[in-house]
Amino acid sequence: MMGTSHAATGILAGGMTGFLLSDNLGHALVCAAIGAGAALLPDLDTPGSTAGRSLGVATELVSGKIRQASREVYRRTATAVELKRAQDGGHRFLTHTVPACMAFGLLALLVSLIPLGAGLVVFAMSALGLGAVLREWKFLGPRKKRQLTSVITAVLFGVGTMLVPGWGPPWWLVGLTVAVGSLTHVLGDWLTRSGVPLAWPFVVNGKRWWMFRSPVAFHTGKSPVEVGIKWGSVAAFPILVLLGTPAPPPM
User: Fold this and answer.
1) Are 132 and 40 in contact (CB under 8 A)?
2) DSSP of 150-169
3) Which of 107, 166, 218, 248 has its CA 20 to 30 A from that of 191?
4) Whole-prediction pTM value?
């Protein structure tokens, strides 16, 4: 799936995680923004991806290192059957596994335990995810205006989490939402024809990096199904919140 589609599904997954695990509607909104950014993290194995370009040279360098690490892990853990094939082991390998999603969540959780750390995670994920989603919301005006909107929103969420008691979700929910958002990316790529190594590090049919794909898999960026998933995810979260929020008691 494309970056904007991943971010959109992250909004729904992150938002519902916050909505179901907290009785604070504000937490659900912040978790939706966190999920949008976290749903782009697995593509850090690609320097040219939305996540890889998010902070310019800094994230491109990190992305390049992650791709190298993915190749090395593939080389060391692939079975003899897999090593006979000319596979790069970079994109859609290590960062697209369930353990990697758990690692992203654990890292976010540990950072959130540091003073002001939760606010930094909220800001980074919000800026990354909302920037990707608003890229296609052309009805909001020029591109620079949309970018400014995403940055301002991310700053409000991040600073609010740092300075305003009760504004942001607790540290454990921040970490969990990052893990859920990352896993949403992996499941989104499972829907495409390239597939993802969902069973790693276990061996399936003689392969440790067996690529699982949906029985109705589609081509990335070329299917109306992906368009429907993208816009449906953005629309579904506020609808579900409205339906699930109890009405205020009569005066």
Assistant:
1) yes
2) HHHHHHHHHHHHHHSTTTSP
3) 107
4) 0.91
